[in-house]
Design goal:
There is one protein chain. 33% of the residues lie in helices and 27% in strands. With 169 residues, it is an alpha+beta fold. It has one domain (3-168): Aminopeptidase (3-Layer(aba) Sandwich), CATH 3.40.630. The protein is globular.
């Protein structure tokens, strides 16, 4: 497996089927979504079509290894309300990111670290961001270790102390 071939591209209408497959896998839904509410094709289109078309201010991306889709990432600018809730000033340009690897057999191979580093670099290089945040569940130790390797640090517990607010500057 050549990890140098990790590519992040914009999601398009042809990605709905693979997203439905990923978002019905228990290993993915454990930390991204709800295990009791897997996605079918219709639900994927309903959620992601407005993101692809720009109707919703969340930018969706597909991660490929070689030319094979293996994961999903998204970025969004934090609302003023969220910035205040998380303790940032109105002057801070804060972007949030979320991601998952859709193929469980690719967990623990270093791919997540490459994805997050590439995406964070892309955001800092191509937006006005001075902070990138994410919010893994406290129990998602694998993801937290990945994010720390990528330069994120724990800021505070949020959402009933169930998630870490982590930031990279």
């Amino acid at each position: 497996m050549n990890l140098e071939k990790v590519l992040i591209r914009k999601m398009n209408d042809e990605d709905y089927e693979i997203m439905a497959k990923w978002l019905s896998a228990e290993e993915v839904l454990e930390f991204y979504g709800d295990v009791n509410s897997p996605f079918n094709l219709e639900k994927v289109k309903e959620k992601y079509e407005p993101r692809i078309s720009g109707e919703v201010p969340v930018n969706p991306y597909i991660v490929e290894l070689g030319e094979t889709p293996i994961g999903y990432m998204q970025k969004y600018s934090l609302s003023d309300e969220k910035k205040v809730e998380f303790g940032y000033s109105g002057h801070d340009k804060v972007y949030g990111i979320d991601q998952f690897i859709g193929k469980p057999k690719l967990f623990n191979k270093g791919i997540g670290t490459i994805m997050v580093r590439q995406f964070t670099d892309y955001i800092f290089d191509n937006t006005d961001a001075n902070v990138v945040v994410l919010d893994p569940e406290v129990s998602n130790v694998r993801a937290i270790k990945c994010y720390e390797k990528c330069g994120f640090s724990k800021v505070r517990l949020i959402e009933g102390r169930n998630k870490w607010l982590m930031e990279c500057r």
